[in-house]
Amino acid sequence: MSGVAWLCGSPKRDHGASFLMLEAARAIAGGVLWAFAPDGQPRPGGRPARIGAAWTAGSAAATPPASGGARPGADGPADPVPAEGARTAGTPPPPAQQEPGKPPLDGWEALLEERAIVLSFPLYVDMPPAPLLEALERLAAEALRLCKEDPAKPLPRLYAIINNGFFDPRHCETASGALRLFCRDTGLVWSGVLMAGGGPMVAALPRLFRLGLWPFGRLKRGLASFAGKVKVLANAGEAGLELPMPRRLYVFLANTYWRLLAARNMLPPGRLRGPVLGPGEPAARDRGGEA
Question: Which pTM was predicted?
Answer without folding.
Answer: 0.71
